[in-house]
Amino acid sequence: MKVIVHIGSEKTGSTSIQSFLELNREILLQEGVYFPVSIGDYNHVKLVTHCEDNSFQKRIYQLVGVRNKEEKAVWSQQLVASFSREIAEMPASVNTVVITSELFQTNLSKTEEVEVLKKLLQEHFADIKIVVYLRRQVDAAISLYSTHLRGGGTHDAPLKGNAGIQWRYNYKKMLDIWKSVFGKTNVIARIYEKDKLLDGNVVKDFCHHLGVADHWQKFEQPAPQNTSLSVLGQYLLYHANLHKMLKEDNRRTRKATIAFLEENYSGVSVTPEFSNCIEFQNRYTALNADVAAEWFDQDQLFAEFKGKKCNGGFNEIPEPERVAALEHLQEFIATL
Question: What architecture is domain 2-218?
């Protein structure tokens, strides 16, 4: 049996892929593709947690309610048993299982962690394929800023906190680890650029690797994901995080507040200065060249960065508009 493991990377349409898989679970099953639920309803973050080391420094443990090494051992044992039982009870018509989480790429930064995943998968599957989408680092960093704020972050600009070569942007190191564990022929790297994707659509491109793209018309398409916050909307969330206006342990309150901001303050997000973007992207020039040569037989990994018009960030928000929006936000939070 075959398993396709989609590992991200972040901000490459992972939520759209996962929403598509969840929405079309029954139709995919008719095509012989099974989407498991024991390791997560649509984002298989539980399996990522199982594979991670026991440093407990990552937020992912909070998401599954694991607090220490002893709890992790019991929790992992139960998860593996549940997953194994689910695979054993799949319909006989299934020929492919699909697993997905962008946190595989983000959180599994050690060879030993990826080997834990391989050990489990080898117990059930003879054919294991890894699929990863690579996005130009500066674009990913700018897009991740909203994710940072939504998670409670307090950086006041998109490229802050991204100094140096972070793990999530070092595609060479990431690919080296995954190929060392699964073999290069079993790792499928794709460039997240419209002209490099099947029909310019990342979901359809992924369906090609699942072997179901030829039946595209029979699938339902999910609603657009991740509404962008405007500069003012991002500022409001930044301000709420900085001044602890939202209780850290209350996910319902945060979710409701983000929905409020999406409804009232959506639009074009903060865009950094072009020179700052170029400086950030240039940190990865040599690494990207190595990836381009090894994985794509080309000199350059991504298209040239053209940039977008800088919109000035939080400092450009007029004071009266800022004050009125903060009052609006405070009034909403008071109703929760």
Answer: 3-Layer(aba) Sandwich (3.40)
